[in-house]
Amino acid sequence: MQKTVYVADQLKKHGFSKPVYEKIRFHLGDEKYGYHIKELENVNKNIWCRDYMPVRNCKGHLIKFDYSPSYLMASKSGIKSRPQTNVLKSQIDDNVTDSNIIIDGGSVEIYGESVIVSDRIFRDNFKKWDNDEKGLLKQLKEDLEALKVIVVPQHPYDFTGHVDGMVRFINENNVLINDLSDEFNKAAFDKNKYRKKLIEQWYYSFKMALFDAGLEWKELTSNFFPKDVKIGPSDAYGIYLNFLHLEEIILAPGFGIDEDETARKLLQKTFNKKVVTIQARELARKGGIVNCVTWQL
């Protein structure tokens, strides 16, 4: 089967995303890697293909979950942005099995027989599963053919509940997380006691969830709170964890700052493979980065 990376055809049509599209084609289309870049059509102008495309489970089978997350279903524009399942399936050169669980691709991290999801899965499936958390996790485990499902608390300021900007597998027993010291230290001086408590509780709960699952973690450079850069509430600035991880190469996001090279070197050392930085500052302003706009087959 030919190595293929999918992107939405809209990615090349916006000023904020076209440079990322061009760099993806440039690096992956090189003879050394030979990836075919396939553009998804009729996806309702939704560039975030990682979220609505299927998830490859622990046994290699493609599972298409119900792409109806609450962050989309709360608005008419969000509902209209959901591509039709049959349209997506017609453009995938592999068999796809449907699941009735509401979850998107950015909310799932898989390695071997282990799966990480955020606790957002409970809120999004509350009505559909009649508040049956155990039954929901059992079904998710079966759909993904997993031995272990690890649930971590979603970041309090990430409205999507995704994990691909929060934790990524290195191997079965080790994960990569953001260096949270800057965020935690800033929270300590927050005059708003509620925000301070919210971050502190999440910080410890997140690490305890990893510890209880038997996972060791390594911290990746991050830059959530730059002093000289204005960022919005949905901005993905400084989240280097949102990289595209392929067999031979990693495409990491860059933001035009010194930390870009620090993150690239750490990723290269961690995974022992070539890491290329793709400048994605304008794309990050829209709430996602390199992993969010790609999907591999």
Describe the fold and architecture:
There is one protein chain. This protein has 297 residues and is of the alpha/beta class. The chain is built from eleven helices and 15 strands. The chain has helices at residues 18-28, 49-52, 70-73, 76-80, 85-89, 120-124, 133-143, 181-188, 193-212, 259-271, 281-284, and strands at residues 4-8, 36-40, 55-56, 62-66, 96-102, 108-111, 114-118, 148-152, 167-171, 174-178, 216-220, 244-245, 249-254, 274-279, 295-296. The strands form five sheets. A three-stranded mixed beta sheet has the order 2-1-15, covered by helices on one side. A three-stranded mixed beta sheet has the order 3-4-5, with helices on one face. Strand 12 and strand 13 form a beta hairpin. Helix 8 runs antiparallel to helix 9 (193-212). It is globular. The model has no long low-confidence stretch (mean pLDDT 93).
Fold topology:
Layout (H helix, E strand, L loop, with lengths): L3 E5 L9 H11 L7 E5 L8 H4 L2 E2 L5 E5 L3 H4 L2 H5 L4 H5 L6 E7 L5 E4 L2 E5 L1 H5 L8 H11 L4 E5 L14 E5 L2 E5 L2 H8 L4 H20 L3 E5 L23 E2 L3 E6 L4 H13 L2 E6 L1 H4 L10 E2 L1
Parallel strand pairs: 1-2, 4-5, 7-8, 10-11, 13-14
Antiparallel strand pairs: 1-15, 3-4, 6-7, 9-10, 12-13
Helix pairs in contact: 8-9
Key words describing this protein structure:
alpha/beta; about 300 residues; three-stranded mixed sheet; 11 helices; globular
What is the end-to-end distance?
A: 9 Å
The coarse silhouette is globular
Question: Quaternary state, please?
Answer: single chain
Mean pLDDT: 93
The helix-and-strand class reads alpha/beta
Over the alpha carbons, how many angstroms does the gyration radius reach? 18 Å
| Helicity, as a percent range | 25-40%
Strand order of the largest sheet: 2-1-15
Strand content: 15-25%
Number of helices: 11
